[in-house]
């Protein structure tokens, strides 16, 4: 029997029309690359998104066309999120920190028709333009007075504010199949070419509902949200959509992501929640501790993209009264998969037990199903001990990569994540490693994340990374790379002794090497492949 309910496609534009009608007064604050702070309301934002939709049509952008952005977190980028997807084109966000070869590859692979860019990124745009085989339209995301004059870009650079200013603000958001593509984000794979993940309107709206839930990112109209996670990193984890769905105030940091700039913004705008990778919070905490500051408004922060060290969770919660929401996800998952919100019976645990639960990557949000499997694909038990490859499925999980090989990533309806994990009886998943980072020592697997977690608990360790080093007898053994806190006098032997009683004896690192800095990738994650390359000839013999 067919149901008798309205048929309304789940479209990204519906989030915008909701925000305008029901939260028109809510504010969006942006630090601009021009150097000032910009403020306006959701109703202004919606109007300008409609004007930009008209401008895109004038530029000849058709349904399904890809429109690239090379930009930081700001209100104009947010307008493009809605103007591009809402009018039926596909928003392709690009990470300016990627290598030029990768950017050119992505733009050509996606066949972007237009590239919108923040003016401070002009040198990258010029380098891209010199390499592109086919011409595309360049739009500087600024006003006429700030449009950069570029000799390299002889094809005139259009001005964002001119496009808006000359466009009508009447625009009917088209209604179309919710399975149409809305945005495109490439995984910055460490081997081979980047692969495109093509989200749909339906997957995006469903992901938004789930992300906002109390036991997920827990967002409401009472929040002032600061997405530190860039809008080119999996759609800023969905926060630009969540804010419209629930009417939360938004604060965008522009390119200023250092600890001091973030702290000032958090305090000045009374931010209540934020989201970012652990390295961002490392910088923020270093500044706050150094200057003996405290947070007067921030109540919680989402940390994901890489394992959050338990020491960081403890410090944020116990010293700064900021609750940590530890989340796991992937570009291929839109990105949200699991969130570490406690269950009621876990609240009575001892602080140490609770911290151990929070250091795990959390439980599945509705919409994502998961399992762990062995090498033969057999499902493994949820005993909190057995590890296996993590497989996921759900309406916002990738089926095929964009223009991918015939066989997509899909295995019998499940997506193999490439992460090794265990799941406990409460359904809390814990990533023990990326499959390629696991340390294979004499037939046993050692979790590099576990070693890093223990190292992070040492009071004189600023950051740590653990990789496999070649060993004459055991094939691979853990090598710990450490950046010490300023003024630390800790020795390698002291750090190694710190592991006694905290990990099994055979998991203890064999050696410690001190470094000035640990190399980070384009999304702020430790570049383990680079470290492995650097220490390729480091042979452990003892
Ligand atoms: P990306 O698609 O670039 O965001 O990378 C996704 C990968 O980041 C996952 O497959 C994990 O290996 C890793 N990752 C994301 N969140 C976490 C987390 N909370 N803990 C450990 N690893 C994570």
TrEMBL record:
Residue spans crossing the bilayer: none
GO biological process: fatty acid metabolic process
Organism superkingdom: Bacteria
All copies of domain AMP-binding enzyme C-terminal, residue ranges: 450-525
SUPFAM superfamilies: Acetyl-CoA synthetase-like (SSF56801)
PROSITE patterns according to UniProt: AMP_BINDING
GO molecular function, one term: ligase activity
Domain AMP-dependent synthetase/ligase as annotated: residue spans: 18-402
UniProt name for this protein: Long-chain-fatty-acid--CoA ligase
Source lineage: Bacteria, Pseudomonadati, Pseudomonadota, Betaproteobacteria, Burkholderiales
